[in-house]
Design goal:
This protein has 14 helices and twelve strands. The longest helix is centred in the last third of the chain and has 20 residues. It has two domains: 245 residues, Type I PLP-dependent aspartate aminotransferase-like (Major domain) (Aspartate Aminotransferase, domain 2), CATH 3.40.640.10; 135 residues, Alpha-Beta Complex (Aspartate Aminotransferase, domain 1). The chain is globular, with a radius of gyration of 21 Å.
């Protein structure tokens, strides 16, 4: 089946033999499940932290979308990342990570893994795979990537890095939140596991917080599944239902997000009050060719530097009417934020500046409203700071 069909049907096939033939999987709210035999759970279900039919339906769909054998749904993107990190790493291990990452991921690495678990993290500009090769140590166990990165939209060659990692028996994790499995399949490119904030494009409606991990390594899956249950970082049945419903329109939404993002990025590139635009769909992006080689689209995320500084950025953001000034991304509505003061505020200023995250940088999650209204909103906000 093609992606659009799988996004609607996978994990949600009507049970005509034992069930009532529901076309939409029910929300199984029960916290526990009765059984006839003491040592034999009914259909494998015993307690909803361990397994729940609604969450299981979502996990099947997550796996299918990423061309994975297994999927796991977590309480948040950070719950997914934390469980994955704790499963993969031990005291004394070394992690290589892209130098431009979501601020919450850096916080996990720098303020939890490093001080409490003695896991050292080195940040590398992964746009050049040889920088990764040169930074590998005998203790390196994991390479953590985003592509595109958050918020500077840098691209790394996932296949080339995965090949380097294989030479040293190092696992590779790719955060695929920005492009979604509709546009990019990191497992096909050699990644060990893919992580998502399902809060974002997978759900797509800004009404559910969740996370996901997709992978095909059965041994690693069993470890993750055990830790998911042991640590309790599970997605609720209702949130599982919301993500299942949201995924059904993923392909339609992603096409509209990308179309609007390209139009808005092109508009910004020509605007006299804009210093720089970061969007892989633009030919001016330094890795435009790579972006199109390893993905089928460039998604709905972009960032740009406004001329001036913090004052101009704040006045522009606070003048918008259609765009909501809010953290998060990937919803049908357009969101906009200031990384240095919002999503990446936990990253020290000197580190932000080293990777290019300036006080004039603005991140945009382009929604699926009419593009003329989005451009008109930017027009009036730019006039407020002219």
């Amino acid at each position: 089946m093609e992606f659009e069909t799988k996004a609607i049907h996978a994990g949600e096939e009507p049970d005509l033999e034992r069930g009532s033939g529901d076309v939409v999987v029910p929300i199984h709210l029960s916290s526990t499940f009765a059984r006839r035999k003491v040592n034999q759970p009914t259909r494998g279900y015993e307690y909803s932290r361990t397994g729940n039919p609604t969450r299981e339906a979502l996990e099947k769909r997550l796996a299918v979308l990423e061309d994975a054998a297994f999927g796991l749904a977590f309480a948040s993107g950070m719950a997914a990342e934390s469980t994955l990190a704790i499963t993969l790493l031990r005291t004394g291990d070394h992690v290589l990570a892209f130098d431009d990452l979501y601020g919450g991921t850096r916080r996990l690495f720098n303020r939890i893994l490093d001080p409490h678990f003695k896991v050292e993290v080195t940040y590398v500009d992964a746009r050049d795979p040889q920088y990764i090769r040169g930074a590998i140590r005998s203790s390196t166990r994991l390479i953590w990537l985003e592509s595109p990165t958050n918020p500077l939209m840098k691209i790394c060659d996932i296949a080339a890095i995965a090949e380097i990692a294989r030479e040293s028996n190092i696992r590779v994790v790719v955060d695929n939140t920005f492009l979604s499995p509709y546009f990019q399949k990191p497992l096909r490119l050699g990644a060990t596991a893919v992580v998502h904030s399902s809060t974002k494009y997978l759900n797509g409606h800004s009404d559910s917080v969740g996370g996901a991990v997709m992978l095909s390594d059965e041994d690693l899956y069993r470890q993750l599944k055990f830790n998911q249950n042991a640590m309790g970082a599970i997605l609720s049945p209702f949130d599982s239902f919301l993500v299942l419903r949201g995924i059904k329109t993923l392909s339609v939404r992603m096409r509209e997000h990308e179309r609007n993002a390209l139009r808005l990025a092109s508009y910004l590139e020509e605007h006299p009050q804009v210093k720089k635009v970061n969007y892989p769909g633009l030919e001016s992006h330094p890795q435009h060719t790579l972006a199109h080689r390893q993905a089928t689209g460039c998604g709905g995320m972009l960032s740009f530097e406004i001329k001036g500084g913090l004052d101009e950025a704040e006045r522009f953001l606070e003048s918008l009417r259609v765009f909501a000034l809010a953290e998060s991304l990937g919803g049908v509505e357009s969101l906009i934020e200031h990384p240095a003061l919002m999503t990446h505020a936990s990253v020290p200023k000197e580190i932000r500046e080293q990777v290019g995250l300036t006080d004039s940088l603005i991140r945009v999650s382009v929604g699926i409203e009419h593009i003329d209204d989005l451009i008109a909103d930017f027009d009036q906000a730019f006039k407020m700071i002219a």
